[in-house]
Amino acid sequence: MQRIEKYTxxxxxxxxxSLLFVLFFSSCEDVVNxxxxxxxxxxxxxxxxxxxxxxxxxxxxxxxxxxxxxxNNTTPKVSGAQVRIENSNxxxxxxxxxxxxxxxxxxxVPVINMNYTLYVTAEGQTFTAAEKLTSVTPIDKVExxxxxxxxxxxxxxxxxxxxxxxxxxxxxxxxxxxxxxIFPEYELTDDELINGNQISxxxxxxxxxxxxxxxxxxxxxxxxxxxxxxxxxxxxxxxxPFSVPPGxxxxxxxxxTNSNNFAFGYFRLCEADKxxxxxx
Length: 280
What we know:
mainly beta, 8-stranded mixed beta barrel, 16 strands, globular
């Protein structure tokens, strides 16, 4: 069977709520101030080029922000950056700022297996990263059935199927979004044990998924390096919500001005298939 690793932000939210519950009932008068560690402020470059099947892929967005303390209600945006992507043919695609921290290109040309290089100049620093656009096989079908959960309660389960290409190694990142999910749920899959076969991936929510809900499934083809990076990042969110993420988990974005002042984020280019399924 294939190796599938599922990640959700539920565990982080539940841990936070549990801690707040204990603090509230342990003292009704004292104000509890948690002295959380604050790391050095870093630039965050969210550079996902995603080419959804059935579209031209010409409009792409890159977001640039900064890290902020845990209790901040807003994420600082980085304005005034210069952003461009160049492919291996020498074509240049410029991203223009449309609102603070959002940089948009309207004439991008996605080509499977082509190499692309990202260039960002922001706040006196220059960053670069290189990656190849990875393909994905389409979702063949989505099925729904009722299955018992671990407690014996009947729950709705969705299963989607796709055919893994033979004679090559493939990695996939899938996210599920719906009105009953506060945050997306993610799955990482590789074809180490089922190369060239049909893959089935299951999704359920024992508490909230009901008939009438729409579940949006976005299924991406990703590189091995991005697979390994996402595995580490998603594991962090399943841990203590008050822990400081290790600074050693770096993406592929390099600061060419000062290598020690690296940026968070990962430049990736993914072909994707998206299905919106109405739960019956």
